[in-house]
Amino acid sequence: MMDRPMGGRWALRLLSCIRFDEVLVLQGTPLLGAVFAMSQLTNQSVMALVLLAAGNAFLVAHVFLLNDWAGVHQDLRDPARSAGVFLNRGVRRHEVAGLLLLLLLLSLMAFSQLGPATLGLGLMIAVASALYSVPHVYMKGVPLVSSALHLVSGVLHFLLGYSVFRSPDIHGLQIGLFFALIFSAGHLTQEVRDREADLGNGIHTNAVKFGKKRVFIVSFALFTFADALLILLALNGAVPQGLALVVAAIYPLHLHWTLQAMREGLPFQSVRRLQIRYRALYAGMGAVMIMSVLLT
Length: 296
Fold this sequence. Notes:
single chain, 0% strand, 296 residues
């Protein structure tokens, strides 16, 4: 009788290693890909969306857990992260390795029910994650290459959902590029936030090599380019035209918050606050996208 509670507590402690907040943030892109490709909402399409959501949740959890498993010793030396490191929660490294492999298997099983294209895209995302995180490859520490990997992964993530209802095409690539630019820009902002910790750990990110201010400016330039691309797509009819108005409404707010962070000197807390704010903006834009597409 005593083994069950202990087993349950161990399982909960192991699951607590998953970054559920980050997993939730990255559910929107493939869902939007599916919505843009879907011709009509039926019982069958709803079931496909449920499978897609489950597979993507498992996949993204695998990606973040792999990153944490690979960088555990660096995270232990980071004061902002050390308290949350799984080793300090009583979870062993091989246990996390087993969980991340299980998550990948569950993800691929879900995607296999959605067709070979979706399964193939899921595998490509998993490979990109391994290239970024796995020791001795570790493209996280290769400036520019790491950003290119995020750009490609962002497109793949959108096409993952798109492929459920339509074969990837130029239309999907155009819209997917918007999400890829947002993904890449957001990651550069995170590199700015973590520069001091990465520098102390000898990780040669873009922010470490080129400096916080330069990378921060490039990050906002990518956000700007993404917004301009969405306006162009709206004007050309590739996405609902109302999205151009949404971009025009949120961009000044994003610019204001960006300038505020720069005036404060880009400390960890300022950049973190900016991340929370622009994620809320783009989450709202995603909700408007879904409603616009479904209504049209």
